[in-house]
Each structure stands twice: as C-alpha cells, then as structure tokens.
Design brief:
Layout: H1 9-33, H2 38-44, E1 66-72, E2 75-80, E3 83-87, E4 97-102, E5 108-115, E6 135-139, E7 150-156, E8 169-170, E9 188-189, E10 191-193, H3 195-198, H4 202-205, E11 214-216, E12 223-232
Antiparallel strand pairs: 1-4, 1-6, 2-3, 2-5, 5-12, 7-8, 7-9, 7-12, 10-11
Length: about 260
C-alpha cells in the first residue's frame, strides 16, 4: 500500500505564490500584446509629417532657403526686407562667422549695422589703442559685399587720431535705417579693403566667402559704427509658395516698435 504524505505547509505556500506570479505575468503579457485603440493609432498616424496646409496653400521648404555667411569686426545686426534676420552672438572677441539659413524674397533689401569695438567717449579700445573695422558677407544666391553697397558712418573717433586728447563725433542714427523704403541715395558707396588690411581671424578661413569683398567706409580705423545698405534684384522671380506669416514679433524687439 502506498502511503500519501501531506505536503508541508511551507511548500503549499510556495506553490501558491509561484502560480500567482505566473498568472499575473501572463495577463500583463496578453494586455501589452493587444492592438492599440483606433484613437491612439490615428493620433500618431502622421507623426513627423507636420500639419497639412489647407487645399491650395503652398508652404516654403528648406530647399527654398539659402545659406548666409557673415563676418564683422567686431559686431553686426542685419535686416532683410525690413525684418530682423541675424544678430552677431558675440559682441567683441573671439571673432566669429555667423551662418544662418534665410528665405529670400526679391527684390531683397539688405540693411546691416556694423560696429567696431570702441569706447563711445574716446573712440578707442584697450585704453589708448585705435582699432579697425571690417565687414564681409556672402549669400548662396551669389549676393556678396562690394563697393556697390552703400555705407555711412555714425560714430567717428578719436578725431584726427588724437589719442592724447580724444574727441568723438556721434551722428543720430535714423529710426528707419533698416526699412525697405529708407532713402540712402545720398550715401557714398562702400570702400573695399584687402584681406591683409583687415586681418581676419581663423573662423573666416573656414567659411565660404569666395567672391565677397571686405568693406567699410573710407576710414577703416576711425569710423566705428557703420550702416550698410544694398538691394538685390532678380528679374522674373516669383515665390514658389503662397503662404504669409501671421506671427507678430514686435514685442520681442524692445528697442523699437514695429508698425
């Protein structure tokens, strides 16, 4: 006769726990394998494709943009067609190249304010040193700086290069200097300078400025704040897109009010 020996109480508890955890794991596995709900599927269906514009509207794409390379000794701010487009992120040194993508629309009016490092009271840097400026720009559409650009100085000094008794001249900067319809007809053309005269630093040689010229006013040393303007024409050009921005950035420009 075979005798049945009852299992110890501890063994029964162990078997119960094993069965419970096995059941729990299998249930979770089945739940995770269930197909996602219709609402969740539809939500992620077009992920990464962006919102489709209404019928008939065409959006610009990155293939419509062009690369812009800008180098200023020492700082610049640039507007295109009256809109703020680029600001030098470093106001003094190290010298840097600013490269941005822009969406061109022709005719294209470029307005740039460039500043050489200079004390507003003496016109000098590093105490008693007279610095020099320089500006160069190239767009991938072939737009480059040259003597065809307009240039005007609004801060000059030290007058007569007098470092012992420095004096400066500040002319008021027009509020609308960056606008498309600003009248620069009485301004002189920019003066071209050689690379050796401006003496750019290493970042200049790592960017594409082929065909562009270094420009400033007639006085590279004493003119410390210069505004450049240039208009680019492209006959027959029409935008591929028909959408226009609705964004209002006037509140982000505290130094002026856009109208």
């Amino acid at each position: 006769m075979v005798q049945l020996h009852p299992q110890p109480r501890g063994m029964k508890a162990l078997c119960f726990l094993i069965a419970f955890f096995t059941f729990t794991i299998c249930s979770l596995t089945l739940l995770m394998a269930q197909p996602e709900g219709k609402e969740k599927k539809e939500k992620g269906k077009d992920k990464g494709k962006g919102n489709k514009p209404p019928s008939g509207l065409l959006k610009p794409s990155m293939s419509d943009t062009i690369k812009a390379n800008i180098y200023a000794d020492n700082w610049f701010i640039m507007y295109i067609n009256g809109k703020l487009t680029a600001v030098d992120s470093i106001d003094f040194i190290p010298h840097n190249v600013v490269s941005v993508d822009i969406l061109p629309e022709y005719p294209m009016t470029i307005a740039v304010m460039a500043k050489d490092n200079a004390d507003p009271k003496t016109g000098m840097e590093y105490g008693t040193h007279i610095g020099d400026g320089g500006f160069i720009l190239k767009f991938a559409d072939g737009t480059v700086t040259s003597s065809s650009w307009k240039a005007k100085s609004f801060f000059k000094g030290p007058l007569n290069s007098d470092t012992q008794n420095p004096k400066v001249q500040h002319d008021p900067i027009p509020d609308d200097w960056f606008k498309i319809d600003f009248d620069d007809s009485k301004w002189k053309n920019a003066t071209e300078y050689t690379e050796e005269r401006v003496n750019p630093k290493e970042p200049f040689y790592k960017a594409d400025f082929k065909g562009a010229k270094w420009i400033w006013t007639e006085d590279l040393d004493l003119d410390n704040t210069v505004i450049f303007r240039h208009k680019v024409e492209k006959e027959g050009w029409k935008p591929r897109w028909n959408t226009k921005p609705n964004i209002d950035i006037s509140g982000a420009l505290p130094w002026r009010n856009e109208k």
